[in-house]
Amino acid sequence: MSRKPRAAKAAGTSLQLGQQVEAPASPDTAKLDRVPNPHTDTNYVARFTMPEFTSICPVTGQPDFAILVIDYVPNKWLVESKSLKLYLNSFRNVGSFHEDCTVSIGKRLTKLLAPRWLRIGGYFYPRGGMPIDVFWQAGKLPATVWVPDQGVLPYRGRG
Fold first, then answer.
1. 28 backbone dihedrals φ, ψ, rounded to 5°
2. Any catalytic annotation for residue 101?
3. Is the model's pLDDT at 92 over the cut of 50?
4. Alpha helices (H) along 52-154
5. Is 100 a catalytic residue?
C-alpha cells in the first residue's frame, strides 16, 4: 500500500519524497520540491550542509569538491530535503565553474522559495593549488534572527 507523505498532501502536489525517483542528469532537469512552512509567523534559520558536493571542471573534465552551506529564513515555503540532495548531486554530471555552481544554486532556491533571506557559501578544495570560496545572498536578514557562522575554516587542508 502506497501512501503520500503528509507534506505532499498539505502541498497538494506530488513530491519526490517517499517515491523512488531516478537521479537527475543535470541541474537543469532536476526537480526541486517545496512544502508549506508551518511557522510563517516565526523568523528562524534552516541550514543545509553538503560536505561532499562535487562538480566537473568545464576545462579539464576533472572532478571538483566542495563543502556547501545553505542558510535561509523561510517565508511561505521550505525546500524539501530529498529533492535538494538530488538537485545538488546532479552537479557532478555537468561542467561548471565554482562561481556558477554556487550562484546558480542560490538563485534557483530563491526563485523557488522566495525566502526572507538566503545565503550560500561554496568552499571549494584547491584547483591548480588554489582554493576558491564563493558566497552569495539574497534578501535582508531579519534583525531578530541569529545566524551561526558557517563553520568552515579558511583553507588549511580543509580538514
1. -65, -30
2. no
3. yes
4. 81-89, 98-113
5. no
